[in-house]
Amino acid sequence: AVEVCAMDRSGHLTDKQIAEYKESFNLIDKDKSGSISRRELKSLLLSLGHKTTDSELDHLMRGVDADGDGTMDFPEFLTMMAKKLESSEQESELQEAFKQFDKDGNGYISRDELREVMHSVGDMLTEDELDGMIKRADLNKDGQVDYREFATLMKQQ
Q1: What is the rounded CA–CA span in Å between residue 98 and residue 108?
Q2: Within 13 Å of residue 90, how many CA atoms lie on the same side as its CB?
Q3: 24 exposed, middle or buried (CB, 10 Å; 0-12, 13-18, 19+)?
Q4: Distance CA 52, CA 59 (A)
Q5: CA nearest to 64, candidates 56, 72, 52
Q6: Helix H segments across 65-110?
Q7: Cβ neighbours of residue 27 under 8 Å, at least 6 residues apart?
Q8: Neighbouring residues of 121: CB distance < 8 A, sequence distance ≥ 6
């Protein structure tokens, strides 16, 4: 299995990551053609338990096949993996931020928790401002903010 490491500070993949991804790429490239075919990608996804339709597979290939040759070469594979890694790191950061607000760990940010965090950073919000923040984030209108709602709001910023 490939160990996923953090990118270096400049946002680029490290030499170690590139080597690990090259090893993975070579395992997927069963016919050793230097590129991953649609068939090889489908086989990989099936082995990982993902049943994909032909249209889903076509969409996936079009999303990574920058040169339009119908296959995924190593630079295209590397670009895809870097995007996935970056997305994963952003998700992890959002989860950590959510935990800072969810003081009691129940999976929700209440109005009181929001007030407490905002006060701790020196932002003395009025009751109306607190209500407005909760209202804007509370998509299902239950009076509190769950992780999905928090992530949606943060991604819009």
Answers
A1: 9
A2: 11
A3: middle
A4: 10
A5: 72
A6: 74-101
A7: none
A8: none
Quick check: pTM over 0.85? no
Say how many C-beta atoms besides its own lie within 10 A of residue 133's C-beta: 18
Token reading at 11: 């946002």
Task: Please compute Rg for the chain using Cα positions.
Answer: 21
Q: For the chain, what percentages of helix, strand and coil (3-state, to nearest 5) are there?
A: 60, 5, 35
| Contact status, residue 117 vs residue 100, Cβ threshold 8 Å | yes
CA dihedral of 72, 75, 81, 82, whole degrees rounded to 10: -150
For 96-122, how does the pLDDT look when each residue is reduced to its tens digit (9 = 90+)?
999 999 999 999 999 899 889 888 888
